[in-house]
Amino acid sequence: MTAVTVNNIIKRYGKKKSVVTALHGISFDVKKGELFGLIGPDGAGKTSLFRVLTTLLLAEEGSATVDGFDVVKDYKEIRKRVGYMPGRFSLYQDLTVKENLDFFATIFNTTVEENYDLIKDIYSQIEPFKDRRAGKLSGGMKQKLALSCALIHRPSVLFLDEPTTGVDAVSRKEFWEMLKRLKAQGITILVSTPYMDEASLCDRVALIQSGHILSIDTPQGIVQQFGKKLLAVKAGQMLPLLQALKEHPAVADAYPFGEYHHAVMKGAGRQELEAYLVKRGFEFELKDAEPDIEDCFMGLMRDGR
Amino acid sequence: MSDKVIIAEKLTKRFGDFTAVDAISFEVNRGEIFGFLGANGAGKTTAMRMLSGLSMPTSGKATVAGFDVYRENEKIKRNIGYMSQKFSLYEDLTVRENIRFYAGIYGKSSSFIREKTGIVLKELHLSGEADKLVKSLPLGWKQKLAFSVAIFHEPRLVFLDEPTGGVDPVTRREFWNLIYEAAASGITVFVTTHYMDEAEYCNRVSIMVDGRIDALDTPGGLKKTFNAVSMDEVFLKLARKAVRTAD
Fold this sequence. Notes:
The complex is a heterodimer. Chain A is an alpha/beta fold.
């Protein structure tokens, strides 16, 4: 079963002279119950796509369905069935936690009690502060309240636009654990993020850049498509090492990667590279490396240029 | 002048009965890239506000660029640069106007601004875009330009608050190249980030937990101390101990 279909969606902003194309003919499907990640930097088109799918924005061309309904014709049906958590905190700052939750439940003709089981896991963490105004909550608590409000009508598809942006590594991990538990309840989740390392937590991901999808697959599938030999190298002097790697003819690309530099090889050539680095006087450590999503993303960006 | 650009001794900030920053002591050397990490709510922003002369400490001592945070905060502001992901440039001004505006605020002469604008734009490969509105530039270019603007007046120290949030991985690395170049020219870099691979690019890293600095060392030293394979693991081990919920 398919929860979301996207066919050749084109979204443009502006008029005549200053037209910006945010989405250049995007197509993909999301299966029911899937945790689908839209991974890309700011300005890639993630928010535009989410707004088209949640019927808040009309695309110039193409078609899309959510839960079997057309985003243009059946927008009212879709609005009943989706939960949407925008990137910017959009609850009522001067209503309390409890008032916000009640408000959203009422709008969708339901009650907090009816769907409490779905949000219990998340809401119970902020329930001790239920009489505090939403504007006075910490960032982490705001996020939990926003997620509770997006879930209170038991949506079949949940759209989360950059829920972990600006959030520290520990809170990010906790948030993804919450998503896994929601997925276990059968909710289809589309989540966008600029953090490449979060891709591995999704069932499938679309890598998106400048309004184009670079690749769609399982995280493992994307890594397998990398298709080039990757080496990790470190030395006492990292900057000269990077320069030396870039100058070697067998190296397609070299870039810092945490503690090591990654060198993408054109073919084999590990031995030649080692001999070359010895000759250049480096005391180095060199080993084979497994590409991760960030390596793949940079590779796809390189190929696209 | 001393080679210590920041000296903090038991620097503390309380809001009512809440101690946001709890007696932190550390030093940052000239030309160093100093990573300032911590979970949301650990007290990083409050500490940075005190060090940049925007907020009076409750107790403790600190000098920044040789100036006292209590008595000489205006001098501190003049001698530092600041850039964050959120606050950077004026979108409705051109590239050249933004440079002119910020450099003017720091009291730079017209001839200095004119001469240096050309050099900076050339380095950034933005010479052809000098008269375009900043809002028309891609995000990655904006962030690189914002960094160049933040150090245009040649401060001794620049504070970077999550400068690479949301930036694509290639641009993120280009940005770090600019940081290395600034550090090599003698500008001290004080940077916060949520990307743990970027912690590896710093000379030294401190990690704040519940208002205190719980660890401070080179990335290699921290990994050794905490018996971890990556900075990500070091961070998780420390930050999980936090009692405070979040900002």
